[in-house]
Specification:
mainly alpha; two-stranded antiparallel sheet; 2 strands; 74% helix
């Protein structure tokens, strides 16, 4: 920023953006302030830039979450008994598009239940507690399945 030589008598306009002044506003207000206000103004500009960066959508992270979810669920469902059932229903009914619509709607609905339940649990439990609970649940299911096979 270039130094200012004389203070202006014009009032500083107000341009609030999400509770933080814009850099243009801060530059104009600097005309009214003494030279001591420069460091405070720079600090305000930095806080504005930080708030602006924080307000930007995290597209990259969102895409990463989307693709990791898609690939995980897609691979888990390939060859799953649900897919085999869908295959058999399509072969028996000779209405593949109706079976596709019904199966797709059912998968979306079950995913919605999982997402809503996960969101509800995330508000009440810590991530570590959720991970531990999921791990214990998987171990319990594995032991029960193994017990069922060995009996």
């Amino acid at each position: 920023m270039k130094p200012l030589s004389a203070p202006s008598t014009l009032p500083a306009p107000e341009f609030p953006v999400s509770g933080v002044d814009s850099p243009q506003h801060l530059s104009k207000r600097k005309l009214n302030d003494s030279g001591e206000a420069l460091s405070a103004e720079r600090s305000e500009i930095k806080s504005f830039q930080t708030a602006e960066r924080a307000a930007k959508p995290k597209t990259r992270k969102g895409l990463s979450v989307f693709w990791s979810t898609f690939i995980t669920i897609f691979l888990a469902e390939l060859g799953d008994k649900t897919q085999v059932t869908t295959l058999l229903m399509s072969a028996e009914s000779h209405s593949p598009w109706l079976v596709f619509a019904g199966a797709g709607t059912a998968l979306v609905a079950t995913s919605l239940v999982g997402v809503l339940l996960g969101q509800w649990l995330a508000k009440r439990l810590s991530p570590k507690t959720l991970e531990t609970s999921a791990g214990v649940s998987m171990l319990l299911i594995s032991v029960l399945l193994l017990w069922d096979v060995l009996r």
